[in-house]
Amino acid sequence: MAKYNVLFVLGGPGAGKGTQCDLIVKNYDYKHLSAGDLLREERQRAGSQFGEEIEGHIRAGTIVPVEITCSLLQRAMEDSGKKNFLIDGFPRNKDNLDGWNKAMDGVATVRRVLFFDCREDVCVDRCLNRGKTSGRSDDNMESLKKRIHTYNNSTMPIIDHYKALDLVSHLHAEKTPDEVFDDVKKVLDELKL
Questions:
Q1: CA-to-CA distance for 124 and 174, rounded, in angstroms?
Q2: Does residue 158 contact residue 10 with C-beta atoms inside 8 Å?
Q3: Closest Cα partner for 126 from 37, 19, 13, 18?
């Protein structure tokens, strides 16, 4: 039996994944792990075994090997003292999914995929508004077009994979954060983790 329960949190840029993860953590016994945040932290950690390699990939604009990402996720799970995790922004593509299945077999079980489905125009508006105050360098029109293209081509097949396994909760994310969270609560209350 796997030690950890995982909910993957997927949706396009601006779909509200971070907002909903914050609400879940406040109301349920989950730890939120962002693959991107873990990579950025590891890159800056003194004495990191992966820091230079991560830095090289980020500088070159290439994807960090999935084994590194899974290793960081597993370490964060072990260090947290928790059993239930929200993993945000991962898996992003088939390579991520295959790497996860190989590295985390017997360690973590994906119990559900929370799919925050939001129209592209709403996502773009949210990101552009967030970009005015967030300091995020990727909340601009040029970056958003690339991020949405990547999401449509690489991440949607991951959602389809989990739909075939009947593990996807389809959440309509155009609503207000509180309305979306009401739908999320129904899913989590049914899971009883």
A1: 12
A2: yes
A3: 13
Label residue 189 exposed, middle or buried (CB < 10 Å: 0-12, 13-18, 19+). exposed
Q: What is the pLDDT of residues 152-173, one digit of tens each?
A: 888 899 999 999 999 999 999 9
Q: Please state the φ and ψ torsions of residue 31, each to the nearest 5 degrees.
A: -105, 130
| Residue with token string 């899913």 | 187
Place of tokens 């990939």: 57
DSSP for the chain reads --SEEEEEEEE-TTSSHHHHHHHHHHHSS-EEEEHHHHHHHHHHSTT-SSHHHHHHHHHHTPPPPHHHHHHHHHHHHHHHT-SEEEEES---SHHHHHHHHHHSTTTEEEEEEEEEE--HHHHHHHHHHHHHHH--TT-SHHHHHHHHHHIIIIIHHHHHHHHHTT-EEEEETTS-HHHHHHHHHHHHHHH--
| pLDDT on residue 148 | 82
Query: Is omega for the bond preceding 157 within 30 degrees of 0, making it cis?
Result: no
CA–CA separation, 31 and 25 (whole Å)? 6
